[in-house]
Amino acid sequence: MVEAKELYDKKEKCPICEKEFTTKKTRSSKLRLIKRDEDFFNHYSGENPIKYGVSVCPNCGYAALENKFHSITKEQGEIIKNNITTKWNKRSYGDARSLDDAIETYKLALLIGNLLNYKKLEIGTICLSIGWLYRLKEDRTEETRFLTLARDQFKEAYYNESLEGSNMDEGKLSYLAGEISRRLGDKEEALNWLKLSLSSPSTKQNPALDSMAREQWRITKEL
């Protein structure tokens, strides 16, 4: 049961249809971290903020991660209107979300990300979040499917995209590709990516990441 005090209403204005709506967010002061998985997923004692990471306009169906919601051009807006809004069955995700609700919002954001040709890193981030939500739901099959999609997008991003302006660097991205590969049982792939992370200058400048990469490389090696 979600306690009301854990959530608050945030007002949004859709950049496409310009209608106002409210979406729930978690109060950071109420978050109590229990543990952090090696692929950076945080577990909390109460409501998990990941469930509210995607804003969805109930009127036109436009959905995106909060930090991406207003970064849309007029041309992209037309793509949404033609491909999403025309088929949209109006509904709101503005109340407390179940895991299934949250998964729906991220899958809608993923559909839109593919329509708008988001960068591989952005698509991978959405896929990783969906994998995490399935982890909370204890659905191993779907978690594996979306972790695989995330890993493949991250590999593409590592070799083909600039990470400038993102919250990711080469060390962290190669670590993630390695750790996800370890979780998927791809030992050689995991070792290669973790080794790549350990050789990255950005990892050497991040003692916590360096320690994690060394530990996960050791665990993988012993498998």
Question: How would you describe this protein?
Answer:
By secondary structure, the protein is of the alpha+beta class. The protein folds into two domains: about 120 residues, no CATH class; about 100 residues, Serine Threonine Protein Phosphatase 5, Tetratricopeptide repeat (Alpha Horseshoe), CATH 1.25.40. About 50% of the residues lie in helices and about 10% in strands. The protein contains eight helices and six strands, in the order ββββββαααααααα. Strands 1-2 form a two-stranded antiparallel sheet. It has a two-stranded antiparallel ribbon with strand order 3-4. A hairpin with a 6-residue loop joins β1 and β2. The protein is globular and about 55 Å long. The termini are far apart. The model has no long low-confidence stretch (mean pLDDT about 95). This is DUF2225 domain-containing protein. InterPro entries: DUF2225 (IPR018708).
Q: Report the helical percentage.
A: 40-55%
Q: What is the SS-derived class?
A: alpha+beta
Q: Determine the number of helices (DSSP H or I, runs of at least 4 residues).
A: 8
Count of folded domains: 2
Outline type: globular
Give the strand tally: 6
Name the average pLDDT: 96
Which ranges are low-confidence, i.e. pLDDT below 50, for 5 or more consecutive residues? none
Topology:
Layout: E1 7-13, E2 20-26, E3 33-36, E4 42-44, E5 54-56, E6 63-65, H1 74-83, H2 99-115, H3 120-136, H4 140-160, H5 170-183, H6 187-198, H7 201-204, H8 207-221
Antiparallel strand pairs: 1-2, 3-4, 5-6
InterPro entries: DUF2225
Protein name: DUF2225 domain-containing protein
